[in-house]
Structure formats: structure tokens, C-alpha cells
Amino acid sequence: MSKLKRSLFHPLPMGFMMIIMIWYVLYLVIATRTIPAPLETFNYFFRHLHPLVIHMGASLMRVVVAVVLAILIGLPVGIAIGRSKRLDKVLSPLLYIIYPIPKVAFLPVFMLLFGLGNVSKVILMLFIIVFQLMLSVRDGVKDIPPHYFTVIRSFSARRKYLYRYVVLPAILPRIFSSLRISIGISLATLFFAENYATTYGIGYFILSAWMKMNYVEMFSGIIALSLLGSVLFGVIDMLEKRLTPWL
Which spans are transmembrane here (predicted)? Predict the structure, then answer.
């Protein structure tokens, strides 16, 4: 019984049930084809699960590649800026100028430089994630109390142990928080980017359904997009619990 209660009151099922309730109320109140019935939409979703999974897989591949590249670039650069005052003075002003710019404005530039395929879309998401990650990592390194470094140096520890046992544990929570924010923005941007020269992707699927005025199909795509986001957030939560057990 206790396990059943925990599963029912888990944030994800609760949020899902609340969305369904709000959706159903809007369907009854507005009474228009634009908002289909939840049951009809879910029936369509499960009947067309195979093509939806293909579109979700294409979008997931783009997001995962962008996240991996952002970590490989943003993590060492952010640590370097946080540890070096000279680098901080040189690079931080550049980050402050680039970070607030809506990155979707660069999509035409990336398409001209890298073509209309997956490369330009991945680079656009990389552009979104990497600067957020750099700033979070930099701030996390700066917030480490100086005596932590003094203690580990007193043991004549190698530099790699300083990063392994002091820097990385301190910045991991900030990395996961940054990834949550960045992935949410990336999915919104991906929806826009996948409408150009793309035949697979959940953004393409939703806009294609909208142009056909097939609103049941469109809402099925929105459900698929929300599931994709939930899966990514679930993976981040799982990794955070495993890699930061002290929180």
C-alpha cells in the first residue's frame, strides 16, 4: 500500500494527471476542433506510436549529441575560467555579451555555414547549452572555499586529485541544474529548427500536423515532445542522485 501511495504521489504522475484534467476542462469549455479530446488524442498517439518513436528518436539524437559536446567543451573551459583570474578577465566579458542573445537568431547563419541538415541544428543547441554550462561551472569553481585547496595541497596531492576530489564534487550540482535549464530551452529551439529541411523530428511532426489542420495529430506530437523532455529530465535526476549522493 505504501509503495502504491508513493507511486501515485510521485511528481511526474501527479503532474500528468493535472495536465489531463486541465486539458479536459479546456476541451469542454472551449468546444472547438482546435483542442481535441484527451482520450481521442491518446488513442491516436498509441495507434501511431511507431512513426512517433522515429521522430522522437531523431530529436533525441540531436539533443544528446549537443549535450555531450557542450559538456566536453564547457566543463574544462568553465573550470579554467574559474581557476584563472586572467582567463576570467578575458573571457567573462565575451560570455556576458553572447549569453543573453537569443541563440535561435543564429540558425540562418549556421545553416549557411554548415548546411540545412543535422549539423546546423546540433550546433544551434550546442550554442545554447555550452555558454550556460560555462557560466555555471565558473561560478561553482569560484564558490569553492579557498581552504579546501589548501588542505588537499598540504597532502602533496597531484593536480588530478585536486580536480577529482575538490572541484568536480563542488560543481556537479551546478552542472545538473544548468543542464535542466539548457535542455528545456534546447527542446523549444529544436521545435523551431526542425521545421527547416527536415523530414524527421518531433518539431517537424507537430508543425506538419498543424499545417494539415490535423489537431489530434498535432497534440499527439506535443505529448511526444513532453515525454521526450520528461525522459531527459528523468535521466538527469537519476545521474544526479548517483553522482551526488551527499546532497
Answer: 12-32, 52-82, 94-116, 122-141, 162-179, 185-207, 219-239
Is the CB of residue 125 less than 8 Å from the CB of residue 186? yes
Overall residue count recorded for the chain in this entry: 247
The secondary structure of the chain in percent helix, strand, coil, rounded to multiples of 5, reads 85, 0, 15
Is residue 84 domain-resident? yes
167: in domain = yes
Range of the domain at 93: 32-243
CA distances from 140 to 75, 92, 136, 167, 230 (A): 11, 14, 6, 8, 26
Whose CA is closest to 200, among 108, 103, 117, 113? 117
For residue 237, give the CATH number of its domain: 1.10.3720.10
d(CA 171, CA 82): 11
pTM given for the model = 0.83
How is residue 212 written as a grid cell?
A: 494539415
Percent of the chain clearing pLDDT 90 (strictly above): 32
